[in-house]
Amino acid sequence: MAQTLRAAEDGRRTRTDPPAPPPPPRRRRSVAPYLLIGPSLVILAVVLLWPIAQMVGNSLHSYTSRHLLPTGPDPEWNSFAHYARLLGDPEFWTILRNTVLVTGLMVAITLILGTLVGLLLHRLPRWYANVVAVGMMLAWATPAMSASLVFRWLFLPERGLVNVVLDRLPDALVGSGWLNYNWFLEPVSLFSVLILVIVWQSFPFVAVSVLAGLKSIPNELYEAARVDGAGAWRSFWSVTFPMLRPLFALLLVLQVIWNLRVFTQLYILANSFQNKSVYLLSYYIYQQGFSASPPNYGMGSAIAVVMTVMILAVSAYYLRIMIRQGETR
Amino acid sequence: MSTATAPPAAAPRPARRPRRLRPARAVRRGLLYAAGAAVFLFSVFPVYWMVVTAFKPVSEIFSGTPRLVPAAPTLEHFDRVVNGELIPGVDFWQFLLNSLIVTLGAVTAGALVSLLAAVAVARFKFRLRSAFIVLLMVIQMVPMEAMIISIFINFRQIQDGTGVQMLGNLTGILVVYTAVSLPITIMMLRGFVNAVPKELEEAAAIDGAGNWTIFWRILMPLVAPGLVAASIFAFITAWNEFIVALTFLGRSTDHYTLPLTLSYYFGRFGTEWGSIMAASTLLTIPVMVFFLFVQRRMVSGLTMGAVKG
């Protein structure tokens, strides 16, 4: 997260001046730097990098828990069979579509709400903005597990606050039958609650980043826009947005990456693996690997490869931004 | 959910109205304040509801008319969480201890290893430097949810091959948490090392200080605040982590971390909302404290950079 903030900051700064060249590093040929990065490199390679390669390998083998037994056979090569099965499986396409849709909604709502709140905080008096910001920190800091449980409780049939309040509201406004309504059975209602949890937890980061960005835009630009007769809407799209474009690009990519992998919240809200219609990709991976019987590591890995490719496609864009900003030099 | 849609009240409004119209300005200001209040309530309410529920006696939790403030606050749920047994046979302190071992262990190991790497990246020019940084960024992107099956199989094979137990206890989790936090902490610390003027080190070198002395006497004290910030971020990540613990620990309940305990308890006693909310509150408190501490630093750092630009 921190690195993100820093990256966002750099993203903004480069709007006004070109990336400051990093301090000229010591030009000395030695083994020292390699010794220094050695431990990190070994840990990362063994724990994270190697499994990424294996994930691809596993997805091309028939690989179940049977193969993990000490006396079990080696996993058998089965080429692209898992991928072929996925492509021909309507359930997979539904899950993929839902994942894209739900992620898209989470990202869009988070970015729009976060930007609006950033603009709002910018206009409020400092003390008032600070109070609101501290409140937002509470939402931001709540662990995913606690947040999921609270929202499960808020939307609980019969006793949940949301259900009770909706039930008390005039029927003409919201319809009737809310008290016993179960939000967690059907995809549309469950995903609505899921999106709400995610938006609740992620909009503060966007708002705070946008606020910091707004503070960097010289006021003269807005005055000029006003003199030219631009309203608030116009001056947002003609001044604010172009000035903060790198920041928005960064926030967009990060939100996509973070929201595509949501697991804990869905695990608590769905609370079982029985209803396949509420699966998202990360949930499907876990289900194949650890909840299906027998666990199907090969199929789980194939889904994981699909998800990784999606994420890397988005992060390629992010990497391009970082490299262009000289972040890797 | 009306609060969720309230903020758009702050949506850009035509600013063309003549400034002299006093009432219009007052109304606009009132709307801004109201929108701010709505955002505040939307953010705070779920946390408030969690805490309030934790203090309500069972009869109030299950009465059909929810109250915003408990009529007869009680500590019974906290008592049940801390002194009762969330999972039969294991007490709360064991879970807390497990969580502390993996988080503090990962943070300490991660801080040591990543500080070395950060110094290398910030102070040396070497052939694989850019490749290393790109590698960090890419690894950071690939979600744990995708890697979890392969990591699990790996550890299982290590365990079967060497006899070192990696799954079903805290070892494997500790290793993964350390690795996961590395990319972020290295990139963060790199920024802090970069910020230390090189002249200081050169002056020390002229005075005859060796590399080791320079590192401990010059660099360390100046980078220490960065190390604290990076460690807190690593701590929060590890403290909240769920899927790795869920996968690695299986049925060894006496090694469960706090989030996993909560999930297990919810699965078994899904109607005990008082205890669930009390446990959620306890899980949240350490993160809140650390978060408010780091956040001020992050936001002000951000604003400073922005103003400077």
How would you sum up this structure in a few lines?
The complex is a heterodimer of chains A (329) and B (309). By secondary structure, chain A is mostly helical.
Describe this structure in words.
The complex is a heterodimer of chains A (about 325) and B (about 300). With about 325 residues, chain A is mainly alpha-helical. Helix content of chain A is about 70%, strand content about 0%. Chain A has one domain: MetI-like (MetI-like fold), CATH 1.10.3720. Helix content of chain B is about 75%, strand content about 0%. In chain B, α2 (about 20-55) packs across α13 (about 275-310) and α6 (about 130-140) packs across α8 (about 170-195). The longest helix of chain B has about 35 residues, at about 275-310.
What's the SSE blueprint?
The complex is a heterodimer of chains A (329) and B (309).
Chain A: H1 2-16, H2 32-59, E1 61-62, E2 76-77, H3 81-87, H4 90-123, H5 126-141, H6 144-154, H7 161-168, H8 171-174, H9 187-215, H10 219-227, H11 232-243, H12 245-260, H13 264-270, H14 281-291, H15 297-324
Antiparallel strand pairs in A: 1-2
Helix pairs in contact in A: 1-12, 2-15, 4-5, 4-9, 4-12, 5-9, 6-9, 6-13, 9-12, 9-13, 10-11, 12-15, 14-15
Chain B: H1 2-5, H2 22-54, H3 58-61, H4 76-83, H5 92-123, H6 129-141, H7 144-162, H8 170-195, H9 198-206, H10 211-240, H11 243-249, H12 258-268, H13 273-308
Helix pairs in contact in B: 2-13, 4-13, 5-8, 5-10, 6-8, 7-11, 8-10, 8-11, 9-10, 10-13, 12-13
